[in-house]
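In this section we walk through a basic example: taking a raw amino acid sequence and producing a predicted 3D structure, encoded as discrete structure tokens. The instruction is simple. Fold the sequence below.
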Amino acid sequence: MTVIELAIAPGQTGSFRVEVVRSPAGEARAEVALDVEALLARREQLEQAILASAVASRTILPQTERPLREVGQTLFTALLGSGDVAGRYRASAALASERGEGLQVVLRFDTPELAGLPWEAMYDAVDGAYVCRRDQLVRHVPVASVMQPLKVQPPLRILGIVSSPRGLPPLDVEHEQELLTRALAKPCAEGLIEVHWAAEATWAALQDLLLGGQWHVVHFIGHGDFDASQDEGLLALTREDGRPDMVEADRLVDLLHEARPMPRLVVLNSCSGGATGANDLFAGTAAALVRGGVSAVAAMQYPISDAAAVAFARGFYTAIANGRGVDDATSSGRVAILGTRTRTLEWVTPVMYLRGSESRLFTLHPPTPTSLAAEAKPAAPASDQAESVPPGEGQVTTWGWDAYAAELNILPERINVGQRLVAAISTAAQERGLPWRAIMRKGYVAIQRPGGYNVLVVDLWWNRVPRLAAKLPAEPASLGLTSPFPQLPEIWVPDEHEWGWTVAPGTPLPDVGVLIDLVKPFQPAQGPVAAHRSEPLKAAIQRLASSGASRNIGAAADGLLAMGYELRLAKTTAPGKRPENYLRIMDPAYTAHGIGYLTPTMFSFSRAFDRERLDSLPGATLATSSVNFSHVESAQPGLTAARLLKEGQTDSDT
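The resulting token sequence is shown next.
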């Protein structure tokens, strides 16, 4: 990448000083005239033109584009089109073309007024092109130290946040989540990206998520603002009571520091997240986050339509997942926006703030996959590592069947069992249309779903006897599961959450399709298999258990969570009644209205769901509008019913 870096600062009265700080063609300086106040006064006009381009017809678009092009020409002339600076820019562009490279234009500003101008609109009238659509344009935030690229084994983990508090223009939270999830469906299916949506946009909920996992990217969808009196950027989170929680940029930095490591990239899809303050260069939320430690922030300097926001996210994240820098990724996002509508102007809306000069935030090291449709190919034996490493950092290792024998001394008869099990799993997965893949590790083969999460394991090291295991969120008995292979020794490994069976050489292979059908309902669409109780939920379960009516309320709740259900606190409005005296059982993939309730003594499922099958289960008692299962003696009857509902929903989707 060829780089030209420019700084613009106030010069003598009524002028500004432009300096080429770095370029392959050398340095240069120029004094230019620029009416900043007049340009800032046209902000509302530009905003209206950009938004109009998202819906306008072709016949009025040239007229709509005129204000943007006028401002863009003025900005280009001031920054890149004057004196010796213009010569250095043209020479750098020509050199980049000769090298077959892109040109990165890096901008530095000494005043917030200059940073508040839409430099992404710069228009080169000589070439008839907008600079940011031809070159990679980034805004540089000078800092004392810059972090090295983070080594990441895919998937790239994105924490998605949608905040729609009362009193602000409402957002369709589910719609926003669906749009981004659909936009990233392809890289997610390929295991390159994983998106996890925060259930709530409260400070406490986000702190819990940041403390509890590693996040590479934070993607915020919501409202932003700028407090002119305090000269500070704000983002609107949501309070516990649903009202706006306007969080200053410096407090947001403190919140992000809860993650280890701090997320390297933040995307602000907010209405004013890219705007800058009048007295402080870092007052805008985006620049403040970069100063606080985030390596790069993509923000929107104008409101953006849903179609453009989704297109930008698709192009941007796909580029990053394929190893591109954030400068290239921003350009890819602009190109994706251009595909949404003829002559749209919304490509000017994204702004990239970069900490230092390193635009590659992540070094991606994908594990070596093995197709489930074919036998794993052997690889040269090497060290204990299971993934490839970059040159100079160690020897590349790819485990294969031959390496298991040569390096680990695994007997041929055990390897044969492993090969047959993987082949059987391949056939069963293909028959069910499951996009799973096999990853060969040291001594075992992991069968993974998209996102890199293990579903099954074929372990050739287990106690010198091959072992077939499935990942579960809790002990099988607590989920109402019994062994599908009573003829094989059964093993539960709590630390690994693995339910397994030893398969000695000479033993007939078990029917792995039966096992897949049993564990599939416990595999979420995204993220790891894990039962989780939030602090409010823990308190609610403890309150229900304190009635003494049932000792099994905890097991019932854990079993439901493990199957992928959500438990929500159900507050009563009756006078004198204490809140949270039962829990709503929710399955977002099944219905938006819940499927029943968990009370201190029973599971209560709506008769609208699989009534006939529920009625016939052991322990079922019928009510006017529900089928109930007591958990006073055991949680198993109710969990069996819950599993039947989950399997029914999964089968119908398939």
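Looking at the output, two observations stand out. The CA atoms of residues 1 and 102 lie 5 Å apart. The mean pLDDT is 81. In the next section we compare this with other chains.
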